[in-house]
Amino acid sequence: MRLGLAARFGAVIALTGVLAAGLTGYYGYSASRQMLLDAAEERLLTATRVLARQLTLELGNVARDVLLFAEHPVAAQLLLRSDPQLQERTARNTAILFERMLLTHPQYFQMRLIDTDSYGQEVVRVDRQRDGVRRVPEAELQEKGHTPYVYETIRLPRGSVYVSRASINHEVGAHMGSEKPVLQMAAPVLDAQQQVRGVIVVNVDLEGLFQQLAADLPAGLQLYLMNGEGDYLIHPDKAKAFAFDRGQQARVPEDFPAASALLAEPPQRKAELVTHVGGRSGRVAAFVRQPRGDLAIEDDFIVGLAQPMDQVLAEGERLGRVNVRIVLGFSALALLLAVLLARALSRPIGQIVRSVRGFSAQAPLVNELPSTRNDELGVLARSVHDMQRQIHQQFETLQLKQAEMDRLASHDSLTGLLNRRAFLDRLEHALAQARRSQGRLALLYIDLDHFKPINDRFGHAAGDALLQGLALRLQHLVRESDTVARLGGDEFVLLIEQGAADDGALHGVAQKVLAALSEPVPFQGQQLVCGGSIGIARFPHDGPTASELLAAADQAMYQAKTEGRHQARFARS
Ligand SMILES: Nc1nc2c(ncn2[C@@H]2O[C@H](COP(=O)(O)OP(=O)(O)OP(=O)(O)O)[C@@H](O)[C@H]2O)c(=O)[nH]1
User: Fold this and answer.
1) Within this chain, do residues 370 and 422 fall inside the same structural domain, yes or no?
2) Whose CA is nearest to atom 7 of ligand 1?
3) What is the pLDDT of residues 243-258, one digit of tens each?
4) What is the distance between the alpha carbons of residues 157 and 196, in angstroms, rounded to a whole number?
5) Which of 251, 336, 547, 553 has its CA at 20 to 30 Å from residue 218's CA atom?
6) Exposed/middle/buried for 75, CB within 10 Å: 0-12, 13-18, 19+?
7) What is the largest CA-CA distance in the chain?
8) Range of the structural domain that residue 487 is part of
9) Domain count, the chain
């Protein structure tokens, strides 16, 4: 099926509309999706920074608690062991303070005072136990001189705080902290001579601390904590946390390859990273490493937050659905407009096409074109109508000219009678009919008498007027069935088809003709008079063909001339 111009135009409009709506929707969706992704990354990085900062602040709080005890004179006094009674009372009071501390800080597993002079012997120790916070009996106190938190801390100057590597606590008798991720924070206790006498140690519950820090995070975020080597300390999948403690490996670059760059950064400096993994079904993650600050930290901490990509893009998907609805709406509108436009165009175009197709120069001109429109189609319609009108006029002129030419081809221009050629056609036709019907006919060959002197005396115009006057007279004289023609010069011929059988009647006609020719014709106040001689030939009597009949009639006319003019003679066969 071939589509019309209006339909094709409509289809182009519809296609353009649908395409424009689709592209706008697609690019709008892509741009807003990227903006959402950027905003989500920014939010995630900000939340991670806040979390890392909170961790630093929290470690600072613990450090202040540790220092509070390390700097307290009671600690140094207790370690001097001067008076056993005072010693016991001071130890009890210290234990009470430790207990208060554990009760108000749920993230502390243990607090203890260690005597570095006696191989790191614990002097006072309070543990979080199943049934509450308890002072550990003297008999259960242990030597801790071999532990890093003791031998590393005693090297520190006054006022410094040691922070251990995060580890799983395998110490014997650690109670609630046993086999849990812990962080030991310790400060040296110095005497008046600035000699290190002991160490105050707090065991921090790493998971508890983090749960507390992450409590305010939005739902759906995954929390990660790594050490400086990238080993997971906290991971949503518990099997990956402290894998190194079980002789395995679970490091952040395995899940987030871009994190290698962060691990390669020099320590002690702040470092950040945002990365995605796994495409649309993966995750966006942000990692922040906080500077160590004043603390003597054994290892760095890297804090990470991740969000599933589908959560990040959920807003974008909603936007996408809205976009799809908008695109569909606009496409439907474009289609509707295209149909309306196509119809508005196809009607006038159809009218013009029908008018052009149905136009005929012969048929009367009917204006059914949309000529009243003010647009280009109106201009086209008016132009078509003008063209049709001109064609009509030219056709009429042509017809008139054709009729005139037809008339000139068969008639004598001076008298209006049939000319020789047309007369011969008529004669042939009449002869054929007469032959078929065994009919008869007769020719009266007429030549004017003394016509030349008229020309000579009164001028050519007078001769013309005489010829015209006599021709008119001959036309009126004969019957309707007869034919009068001018053969040329002053020669006329009369064909009689009815009543030609009777020589008497023919003779009568010839006499009437002679009488009519001898009547004067007025011209410019003159009376022009001539007359005529007639030769009569009959079919089939005087000849079977036109030429023979004409020759016979001419011959008879010539005889009439020679015998005195103004008379008629029958041909002699
Ligand atoms: N005015 C005019 N004269 C014509 C026309 N055609 C022929 N003639 C003239 O008609 C004359 C005819 O010649 P003729 O028949 O010999 O002259 P005529 O005087 O009639 O001679 P007769 O027939 O012997 O009586 C010529 O002088 C032609 O010039 C015409 O159309 N108009």
Assistant:
1) no
2) 489
3) 999 999 999 999 999 9
4) 9
5) 251
6) buried
7) 200
8) 411-570
9) 3
Q: Is the CB of 492 under 6 A from ligand 1?
A: no
Sequence-ordered alpha helix ranges (H) in 222-313: 252-255, 259-264, 309-312
Interatomic CA distance for residues 369 and 471, integer angstroms: 53
Question: In the prediction, which pLDDT does 205 show?
Answer: 95
Report the atom number in ligand 1 closest to the C-alpha of 462: 1
CATH number, domain of 429, equals 3.30.70.270
Of 272, 288, 311, the residue that ends a domain is 311
- Spatial CA neighbour of 475 closest among 443, 517, 438, 437: 517
Dig out the tokens for 491 from the structure.
């020669």
Whether 122 and 182 map to the same domain: the answer is yes
Determine the average pLDDT of the residues in 555-560. Answer: 96
Q: Label residue 573 by pLDDT band (50, 70, 90).
A: low
For a ligand 1 pocket test, name from 412, 417, 468, 490 the mutation site with the most ligand atoms within 8 angstroms of its C-beta. Answer: 490
Residue 143: the pLDDT is 92
Does residue 167 carry a pLDDT above 60?
yes
79 with 198, same domain?
yes
Per residue in 210-244, pLDDT tens?
Answer: 888 888 788 888 999 999 899 999 998 999 999 99
- Residue whose token pair is 């609805």: 325
Is the pLDDT confidence value at 504 over 80? yes
For residue 176, how many other CB atoms are within 10 A of its CB? 17
pTM of the model: 0.58
Beta bridge partners of 523: 526
Residue pair 154/196 in contact by the 8 Å Cβ criterion: yes
My answer on whether 128 and 250 are in the same domain is yes
Say whether both 378 and 441 belong to one domain: no
Residue 37 confidence (pLDDT): 83
Q: Does residue 174 register a pLDDT over 90?
A: no
Same domain (yes/no): 384, 455: no
Domain termination site, one of 278, 311, 344: 311
Does 195 lie in the same domain as 141?
Answer: yes
CATH code of the domain covering residue 108 = 3.30.450.20
Residue 39 lies in a domain: no
The whole-number average pLDDT for the span 73-93 is 83
Residue 15 lies in a domain: no
Exposure on the CB side of residue 463, measured as CA atoms within 13 A: 14
Q: Are residues 369 and 439 in the same domain?
A: no
C-alpha 74, offset from chain centre: 84
Decide: 455 in ligand 1 pocket, CB within 6 A.
Answer: yes
pLDDT per residue over 148-158, tens digit each?
A: 999 999 999 99
- Going by alpha carbons, the residue nearest to atom 17 of ligand 1 is 452
pLDDT at 492: 98
CA of 505 to the centre of ligand 1 (A): 29
Determine, yes or no, domain membership for 346.
no
C-alpha 52/C-alpha 290 separation (Å) is 6
Pocket test of ligand 1: the residue of 413, 420, 450, 452 to mutate, having most ligand atoms within 8 Å of its CB, is 452
Centroid of ligand 1 to alpha carbon of 530 (angstroms): 11
Q: What angle do CA 184, 187, 193 make, to 5 degrees?
A: 155
Q: How far is the CA of 490 from the centre of ligand 1 (A)?
A: 5
